[in-house]
Amino acid sequence: MTYRHIREGIFRARPNRFLAHVEMAEGLCVCHVKNTGRCRELLTEGAKVYLEESENLGRKTKYDLVAVEKGPLLINMDSQAPNKAAAEFFPNLFPGLRLLRPETKFGNSRFDFYIESETERWFGR
After folding, report:
1. Cα–Cα distance between 51 and 83 in angstroms, integer?
2. What is the pLDDT of residues 44-53, one digit of tens each?
């Protein structure tokens, strides 16, 4: 999994769970936050953050907040990243992978993945 067009900024505020105000070289900008959790211990005033510039010109925000520095650590804030990374790894885990379907419903449940290989079927959460 790779992020492209990464920019650095300084976190200033989070007016709601979807948006953040980030100070960048060109001034204050509004960014989409890819994690709707509270994240108060991470998104603190003055924290160094990393933004991915979107190629979609029709979006309301130009950037997604994808990571934040916490002391010596770089923490990924993208709540979709674990599933994207897992999907890239599954062909190594399931030889003969025939079908990889994300966000699959089964009865009244929803699974992150449905996988079929030559020898087995697997629902993963």
Report:
1. 20
2. 999 999 999 9
Residues 99, 59 share a domain: no
- CA-wise closest residue to 102 among 93, 88, 92, 94: 88
Q: Which domain holds residue 117?
A: 81-124
**Structure confidence by residue, pLDDT tens digits, 53-86:** 998 989 999 999 999 999 999 999 988 887 788 8
1 falls within a domain: no
Tokens standing for 79?
């709540």
Q: Please indicate, yes or no, whether residues 88 and 59 belong to a single structural domain of this protein.
A: no
